Amino acid sequence: QVQVQESGPGLVKPSETLSLTCSVSGGPIRSTSYYWGWIRQPPGKGLEWIGSIYYSGSTYYHPSFQSRVTISLDTSRNQCSLKLTSVTAADTAVYYCASFDSAAFDVWGQGTVVTVSS
Amino acid sequence: DIVMTQSPFSLPVTPGEPASISCKSSQSLLHSSGYNYLDWYLQKPGQSPQLLIYLGSIRASGVPDRFSGSGSGTNFTLKISRVEAEDVGLYYCMQALQTPYVTFGPGTRVDL
């Protein structure tokens, strides 16, 4: 059973870069069955897809984040990472990593809280 | 982009009674395979979302059979046959037809 866990700094200053890691256990991160997605949830709001990365390394981003986001895989560490540049208070949210298996996000991490504040 | 809407916004429920949530998409989610690429997730208080239903009507592993999904095209329904206290939380539908460009509905809050 694949498990994922997000980690990263809980506090980021405005205009700086948010960097998060998703550690995967129970299976190789590079698998033909999966792609990995990052989803966020601002306080009191709904779920928002940020972007995804396939086993091939191909990345796809929500247009709202296209200019600021980078998602990558580190197969040696079985990790997926998210970088979001030039953050503002609007980027304050719980960030989730999840695996997508053919039709749905079937495994989610517990989420990591990121606050953007000086 | 496919826009997802849900109703109601909030749903008070009574244990033992049925409940249903509606989800509508701005475009048909029916794939040429015959499956509707529509998922349902439940986010219990203080937890991360969990998959309930995928491909419109298939229960995910471990999901109780009191949960059922139905619908096709642009109109979908999640039904709980007999609500239990543990079913409270936020319910989201998500279109996966344009994967990886998925979109979530705004959510429905279910409370006792």
Summarize the SSE layout with pairings.
The complex is a heterodimer of chains A (118) and B (112).
Chain A (H helix, E strand, L loop, with lengths): L2 E5 L3 E2 L5 E8 L9 E7 L6 E7 L4 E3 L7 E6 L4 E6 L8 E8 L4 E4 L3 E5 L2
Parallel strand pairs in A: 2-11
Antiparallel strand pairs in A: 1-3, 3-8, 4-5, 4-9, 5-6, 7-8, 9-10, 9-11
Chain B lengths: L3 E4 L2 E3 L6 E7 L12 E6 L6 E5 L3 E2 L7 E6 L2 E6 L8 E7 L7 E2 L3 E4 L1
Parallel strand pairs in B: 2-11
Antiparallel strand pairs in B: 1-3, 3-8, 4-5, 4-9, 5-6, 7-8, 9-10, 9-11
Shape of chain A: globular
Largest β sheet strand count, sense and barrel closure of chain A: 7 strands, mixed
Which value, in Å, is the CA radius of gyration of chain A?
A: 13 Å
Structural class, judged by helices and strands of chain A?
A: mainly beta
Kindly, what is the distance between the CA atoms of the first and last residues of chain A, rounded to a whole number of angstroms? 40 Å
Question: What's the alpha carbon Rg of chain B, rounded to whole Å?
Answer: 13 Å
Q: How would you describe the shape of chain B?
A: globular
- The tally of helices of chain A reads 0
Count of beta strands of chain A: 11
Helix % of chain B is: under 10%
Count helical runs of chain B: 0
Question: β content of chain A, as a range?
Answer: over 45%
